[in-house]
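Students often ask why we bother encoding 3D structure as a string. The short answer is that it lets us treat folding as translation between two languages. Here is a chain of 340 residues written in the first language.
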Amino acid sequence: MIVVDGAHNEGGGQIVRTAVGLSAVTGKDVRVENIRANRPKRGLSVQHVCAVNAVAQMYSARTKGVFVGSKCIEFYPGKERATKDIKVNISTAGSVGLILQPLIIAALGRGDKINIEVEGGASFGKWAPPVTYIQRVFCRAVSAFGCDVKVEVLRQGFYPKGGCLLRAEIKTTKPRRAVIGCFEEGVKIYGESVASRSLLRRDVALRQAQSAKKMLCDAGLFKEVSIDTRYVDSVSTGSGIVLWTEGNMFLGASCVGEAGKRAEEVGEGAASEMIEGYRARACVDKYLCDQLIPFLAMRGGMIKTSEITKHTETNIWVVEKFTGVAFDVNIEDQTVSIRK
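And here it is in the second language, the structure alphabet:
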């Protein structure tokens, strides 16, 4: 059994998600101790419990200690593939994007199509990738490694009640080595600004989009900026904006609306993040970099990012325990690759 210290480095929930996903793929039992030891609320949250149980569905796994607040879990993947249809129900505004992450990693161990339905949770949440980011940035990036993921949002969810509804389809194709390191000058920026229908009278989605577009255009770095606006029905009132590049670069940026935060600040927050990553001549943003580490280990290749974060260092540490793969991290060039 592989033992993983959940207090390592930044000690967040990512350690649990990566460890469980890789346990399923490799067939290696795992125990994760000291879960989220460096977080204000230690132990598993509702979203972590939902994620672990969903991966267990996929692989007929046995589990121990999987409950809210638990600081130690054990995960024993089954030897046979289980259901292709996974249903997840989240009673809180936990991040839907973070629940999808270990499921996509786990799907690398299966050649069939996996269907996932998630009801509840937030599609836009603080400190977590919005579902639009998962669709427009993460899914495109993992396709370069031979993992096709389609995500359809049927209802958006915001804090504090969540209420998201989405369907996802995951299918692994022929494994591919991916080198994501060719920076492109003057790319086009795309975006989507979303707000609850109740915020239409205050033009929140439009104001988020306009402020982001102005900052991006004023930077003089991009060929064109195109940001769509949408007003949606939702259980809780909220808003958010996601920006992304297309082509062979996978830069994304986002910002979520909060009480007391002007719509213009939300748009500028996402734009500032995009400009920072682009000026660093990154091909993968710093948040995506850590999410791609498991795929890099299992498929091979190289990625160039804007910053090697603690999250990336932690994910490398976890992945090396399961795969035996060694990584080369070049801090000067901000690249991560598989050691030959």
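Translate back mentally: The CA atoms of residues 187 and 247 lie 9 Å apart. Keep this in mind for the problem set.
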